From TrEMBL, chain A:
<dbReference type="Pfam" id="PF03450">
    <property type="entry name" value="CO_deh_flav_C"/>
</dbReference>
<dbReference type="GO" id="GO:0071949">
    <property type="term" value="F:FAD binding"/>
</dbReference>
<protein>
    <submittedName>
        <fullName>Carbon monoxide dehydrogenase medium chain</fullName>
        <ecNumber>1.2.99.2</ecNumber>
    </submittedName>
</protein>
<dbReference type="InterPro" id="IPR002346">
    <property type="entry name" value="Mopterin_DH_FAD-bd"/>
</dbReference>
<dbReference type="GO" id="GO:0016491">
    <property type="term" value="F:oxidoreductase activity"/>
</dbReference>
<feature type="domain" description="FAD-binding PCMH-type">
    <location>
        <begin position="1"/>
        <end position="177"/>
    </location>
</feature>
<dbReference type="InterPro" id="IPR016166">
    <property type="entry name" value="FAD-bd_PCMH"/>
</dbReference>
<keyword id="KW-0560">Oxidoreductase</keyword>
<dbReference type="InterPro" id="IPR016167">
    <property type="entry name" value="FAD-bd_PCMH_sub1"/>
</dbReference>
From TrEMBL, chain B:
<dbReference type="InterPro" id="IPR008274">
    <property type="entry name" value="AldOxase/xan_DH_MoCoBD1"/>
</dbReference>
<dbReference type="GO" id="GO:0005507">
    <property type="term" value="F:copper ion binding"/>
</dbReference>
<comment type="function">
    <text>Catalyzes the oxidation of carbon monoxide to carbon dioxide.</text>
</comment>
<dbReference type="InterPro" id="IPR012780">
    <property type="entry name" value="CO_Mo_DH_lsu"/>
</dbReference>
<dbReference type="InterPro" id="IPR046867">
    <property type="entry name" value="AldOxase/xan_DH_MoCoBD2"/>
</dbReference>
<dbReference type="Pfam" id="PF01315">
    <property type="entry name" value="Ald_Xan_dh_C"/>
</dbReference>
<protein>
    <recommendedName>
        <fullName>Carbon monoxide dehydrogenase large chain</fullName>
        <ecNumber>1.2.5.3</ecNumber>
    </recommendedName>
</protein>
<dbReference type="InterPro" id="IPR016208">
    <property type="entry name" value="Ald_Oxase/xanthine_DH-like"/>
</dbReference>
<dbReference type="GO" id="GO:0030151">
    <property type="term" value="F:molybdenum ion binding"/>
</dbReference>
Length: 284, 808
């Protein structure tokens, strides 16, 4: 459990970080909280000859809620997300999800940027970002650009981000209506067996809009457009929930691991989504 | 002037047996001031670490260390070829087998040690490991013991006879190259007859899965060979330091007086630190070769994958009874998966430990047990993880069989237990499988437990829940998990218990200092049990000096008397007895000194709390403090100066702690999640030395039991890869997963133990596992479940529900 030797860099600003990425190419990785990257290095599953610590790049921090828009700097920790009152009002689902990530120690270190950039299907934030229809801001030697969360994930650990780009912030519109983040895990500190993010709005007793995303049930986070559509226009009764679950099951593709076989995961995914929809509806 | 202190105040001032004395160890542990082996830093110390096999079964064609030797800081790479001239490429195991220190031509399990890289620090060693090139040729893998006994694939070619046959092993005939031993107890023919003629027979396969003790501190050592004076010092995480000294001497040829073994603070053992591991041997050799101290410390994955697993018993059972539920016979055949080498840590004559305690708390007139040990491509071990040797397996087996029998009979499982308990007046009780239970009062304990939990109300609530479930009103079921366990601990009488020929007595040596304080040294070693606290309490009561004035020291073979160490709940039953006996020797001499000082005959004084008083004249006395000083400054005719004693205690019998546990569990049928609503644990460990420490031990043991029953396992895939080698997948409960426990007790002293104590550290694990598992089973009893193997993690509980058709 000892990583291979590496150079440690600690740039003072974003330009410095990008310059180092450009210089070392494939051999360099940025580090945020280090709670996904360092374990991989210790297991020697990731070899990183040049480790670029982003801690001193203060421009990557901060959370702002303005004019119905939320913008979270990549280096904001999960603990900061949980403690930010304005954010809890603007998007309470984020707090509910963050509280279900790992344990307090990990949440003090792990960042939202690291969580969404990592590309690990087990991370909770990517699914949530699908649900929120968030945008990721990237900056590299060629300048800045934004990519939709729903377009960002290609496969496990493979994303739209270029090797020499830094993910600087995530942004999304403040939410209204009902929400729920429901996660089943084996124990505290575990990744999801299945998790569901649900946002929906209610008008005149019927569901006006709905967004559904699932975590750790495929090699990428799954935004199930059909599962949301199955709820819209209904009174979110048992039949609608059943239809939404059935639609979601068409979009996921879980694999067997120590958490259980595929049939179990599919069953639990359905149960978890059903509960998330019910809770979101009760809050709408 | 202060009034005369009362007798009660004098008793309190001692802090002796029965009081909730705070743990003296905790001052350093809670402040991060413990001193563990990895804290040790010696001048010029090197670090060694292993190249390990990625394959579960392969030939090792070649080991090329030339590139590794180029890595900065790497000083040496040891292979089997380097150890062979010293005769150290293999070593004896505690079970009469031998095991490779470093791969000798082949590997038998994933993670097996192939080469030992010695470097200036652990970082250089890790880089060196990456650069050692090993050429393997993969061989067919056997992970299933039943398949292993049928297979043509020979795992242990080294054990084949010259004629290609299968010579006898350490425990008698072997019937297949992958077979290790058959061990039997009881009367086979009589048992089969009883079962053949019985009204009712319940038959079931009960699997107790492979798991691991997983102490927070992994195994490790520092070996330091002083070439000038020829002395080897070995610090390490040893649960049995003296036995390690003897083993090191026997295999290295270094005379025993030139070896000093020191166990510093140990961060949990649970059986994992009983055995001798390749890391110890390689560190010693590396220190001899380099003349420098060499440290070896396992990382978490090394620990989980290689050093000493626990359980892995397939127990086929038949239990016979009359229509009324009176048990008439018990039959068990166990297939024991021992991995690549037989490295179980059991007393020599007991290759399946004390599995023959599997008649449990019940008066079963006829019984038979056979155990077959089997080699597979898994790590060796088979240690007693927070239990006496195979006692958890035995308790789980009988407590599952009782439940299955209750189903077969259509009876309540609590009532079935009650009508079969050994009665208080039957003790000492001779069991059908050969043990003499020392004392017990099971009916009283059971009655108290049933009353405490409101058993009948719980059953009524459960019946209502089943009705509600069937009516679609709830998706949660209620399980009531029962367990009444009897342990056998405190190994053991030298006449039948030894390890490597060393009798399993234990020892205590006491020196009283002139000013009335003392040091006592024992052959055991605490790994969290709080010996420094409780042994001082025993002594305080025995010799009348305050516990706070008594230092307890363990773990240094140069100073402590010889003993067999701490595991199998043997410290209090054996070393605790030695402590009391040594204390009584001190008291006997103190009596003579007191009589001399008081100018009366020896028989005219008697011991009273902290002093000797003249019989009938309590105002004439000498305190133990005064007597201690007198022993150093008075020339007493016929008595040597000083006040010291030593006792080597050979217990006349084992002790038999017992308990009654009830677990109330809610189960979510759809997700497989559980919630423990109530857990009641009544323990009877005989005389209670420190109720607070007992409670702490019970909490810890129950939490490990929870882990084992509800998720913890060492799982292999069909290629022999370990699937659960990190704490992400290997379940170690935190405060979040740990329920509230209610503890209770009865006191039935051991009649043969000097203070009547029986040991408690392991009871909660032995009793806890069946209680948790039975709760899961019980929740589904109304829907037809008989047996489902542990661990009961989410998906396996879900699978029970799914197979019973509860998902609609
Ligand atoms: C015991 C444990 C349990 C956990 N459980 C959960 C869980 O239940 N749910 C969950 O979601 N997560 C879980 N995590 C992961 C944790 O939340 C991580 O901290 C998080 O996923 C990554 O954030 P980080 O800041 O630590 O990223 P790092 O580990 O520093 O980086 C992760 C990856 O992202 C890249 N990266 C980081 N920041 C940027 C950036 N700004 N721009 C571009 N690339 C970047 C890195 O180069 C690296 O490849 C767990 C971690 C541990 C140790």
């Amino acid at each position: 459990m000892i990583p291979a030797a590496f150079e440690y860099h600690r740039p003072a600003d974003l330009a410095g970080a990008i310059a180092l990425l450009t210089e070392h190419g494939d051999d360099a990785r940025v580090m945020a909280g280090g709670h996904s990257l360092i374990p991989m290095m210790k297991l020697r599953m990731a070899e990183v000859p040049h480790l670029i610590d982003l801690q001193d790049v203060t421009s990557l921090g901060g959370i702002s809620v303005q004019g119905g828009q939320v913008r979270i700097g990549a280096m904001a920790t999960q603990a900061e997300l949980i403690d930010h009152a304005g954010l809890s009002n603007a998007a309470p689902i984020l707090r509910e999800a963050a509280l279900q990530i790992a344990d307090p120690q990990v949440r003090y270190m792990g960042t939202i940027g690291g969580n969404v950039a990592n590309g690990d299907p087990g991370n909770d934030m990517p699914g949530l970002m699908q649900c929120l229809d968030a945008s990721f801001e990237l900056e590299g030697p060629g300048g800045a650009r934004a990519v939709k969360a729903r377009d960002f994930y290609e496969a496990a650990y493979m994303t739209e981000r270029e090797d020499d780009e830094v993910l600087t912030a995530v942004s999304f519109a403040a939410t209204s209506g009902g929400y729920a983040y429901e996660k089943q895990k084996r124990k505290i500190g575990d990744y999801a067996t299945a998790a569901a993010a649900v946002l929906l709005t209610k008008e005149g007793g019927a569901c006006a809009s709905a967004s559904v995303a699932m975590t750790n049930l495929s090699d990428v986070p799954v935004w199930s457009e059909a599962a949301g559509a199955a709820l819209v226009g209904t009174a979110v009764d048992a039949a609608a929930i059943k239809a939404s679950v059935a639609a979601m099951l068409g979009d996921i593709d879980p694999t067997e691991d120590n958490r259980g076989p595929v049939a179990f995961k599919r069953h639990v995914a359905g149960v978890i989504l059903g509960r998330a929809i019910a809770r979101a509806w009760s809050r709408a | 002037m202060k009034d005369e202190v009362t007798r009660e105040e004098r008793v309190d001032a001692l802090g002796g047996m029965g009081c909730k004395r705070k743990r003296v160890e905790d001052a350093r542990f809670t402040q991060g001031k413990g001193n563990y082996v990895d804290d040790l830093k010696l001048d010029g110390m090197l670090f060694g670490d292993f190249v390990r096999s990625p394959y579960a079964h392969a030939r090792v064609k070649s080991v090329d260390s030339s590139a590794a030797m180029e890595v900065p800081g790497v000083l040496a790479v040891l292979t089997a070829a380097d150890l062979e001239p010293l005769g150290l490429h293999w070593m004896p195991t505690l079970a009469g087998d031998k095991m490779m220190v470093l791969a000798d031509g082949k590997v038998l399990y994933q993670g097996q040690e192939v080469a030992f890289v010695v470097a200036t620090d652990r970082y250089a060693a890790a880089d060196g490991i990456e650069s050692v090139e090993v050429e393997y040729e993969e061989l067919p893998v056997l992970v299933d013991p039943f398949e292993a006994l049928q297979s043509d694939v020979v795992l242990r070619e080294d054990l084949l006879g010259a004629d290609g046959g299968t010579p006898d092993g350490a425990h008698g005939p072997r019937n297949h190259p992958n077979h290790i031993f058959t061990w039997e107890a009881g009367d086979k023919d009589a048992t089969e007859q009883v079962i053949g003629a019985a009204d009712v027979v319940a038959e079931e396969m009960v699997y107790y899965h492979r798991t691991h003790p997983c102490p927070l501190e992994t195994c490790g050592c520092v070996a330091s060979m002083d070439k000038v004076n020829g002395k080897l010092t070995l610090w390490g995480t040893f649960q049995a330091p003296h036995a390690i000294r003897t083993v090191v001497s026997l295999i290295s040829g270094i005379e025993e007086h030139n070896i000093r073994v020191i166990s510093p603070d140990i961060g949990g053992g649970f059986g994992n630190k009983v055995g001798a591991y390749p890391g110890y041997v390689c560190s010693v050799v590396a220190s001899i070769v380099t003349g420098k101290p060499v440290k070896w410390i396992e990382d978490r994955m090394d620990n989980l994958m290689t050093t000493a697993f626990a359980r892995d018993y397939w127990m086929q059972g038949k239990i016979a009874a009359t229509k009324e539920g009176k048990i008439t016979g018990l039959w068990c055949h166990t297939t024991a998966d021992h991995g690549g080498f037989d490295a179980c840590a059991d007393p020599t004559k007991f290759p399946a430990g004390f599995m023959n305690i599997c008649t449990g708390s019940y008066d079963i007139p006829t019984a038979y047990l056979a155990v077959d040990g089997v080699y597979t491509n898994k790590a060796p071990g088979g240690v007693a993880y927070r239990c006496s040797f195979r006692v958890t397996e035995a308790a789980y087996f009988i407590e599952r069989m009782i439940e299955v029998l209750a189903i077969e009979l259509g009876m309540d499982a609590a009532e079935l237990r009650r009508i079969n308990f050994i009665k208080a007046e039957q003790f000492p009780y001779q069991s059908a499988l050969g043990w003499e239970y020392d004392s017990g009062d099971y009916h009283t304990a059971w009655g108290k437990a049933m009353a405490a939990v409101g058993y009948d109300d719980l059953r009524a609530e459960q019946a209502q829940r089943v009705a509600d479930f069937k009516a679609g009103k709830t998706r949660k079921l209620l399980g009531i998990g029962l367990c009444h366990f009897t342990e056998i601990v405190g190994a053991g009488p030298v006449k039948n218990c030894d390890i490597l020929g060393l009798g399993m007595f234990d020892s205590c040596e006491i020196r009283i200092h002139p000013t009335g304080s003392a040091i006592a040294r024992l052959g055991t070693i605490s790994q969290g049990q709080g010996h420094a606290t409780t042994f001082a309490q025993i002594l305080a009561t025995e010799i009348g000096l305050p516990a706070d004035s008594i230092t307890i020291e363990e773990g240094d073979t140069d100073t402590a008397p010889y003993g067999l160490g701490t595991y199998g709940s043997r410290s209090t039953p054996v070393a605790g007895a030695a402590t009391a006996m040594a204390g009584r020797k001190i008291r006997a001499k103190a009596q003579m000194i007191a009589a001399y000082l008081l100018e009366v005959h020896d028989g005219d004084v008697e011991f009273d709390v902290d002093r000797f008083v003249v019989k009938g004249a309590p105002e004439r006395f000498k305190t133990m403090k005064e007597i201690a000083f007198a022993s150093y400054n008075q020339a007493i005719p016929g008595l040597e100066p000083g006040l010291e004693a030593v006792s080597y205690y050979d217990p006349p019998n084992m002790t038999y702690p017992f308990g009654a546990y009830v677990c109330v569990m809610e189960i979510d049928v759809d997700t497989g999640e559980h919630e423990i609503r109530q857990f009641y644990a009544l323990d009877d460990c005989g005389t209670r030395i420190n109720p607070m420490i007992i409670e702490g031990q019970v909490h810890g043991g129950l939490t490990e039991a929870l882990a084992i029953a509800m998720g913890q396992e060492i799982a292999y895939d069909e290629m022999g890869n370990v699937k659960t080698a990190t704490l992400m997948d290997f379940f170690l409960p935190t405060a979040v997963e740990t329920p509230h426990y209610t503890t209770d007790h009865t006191v039935t002293p051991s009649p043969h133990h000097p203070i009547g104590a029986k040991g408690v550290g392991e009871s909660p694990n032995v009793g806890g596992v069946p209680a948790f598992s039975n709760a899961v089973h019980d929740a589904f009893r109304a829907f037809g479940l008989r047996q489902s193997h542990m661990p009961h993690d989410h998906w396996r509980i879900w699978k029970i529900a799914n197979e019973l058709g509860l998902h609609g």
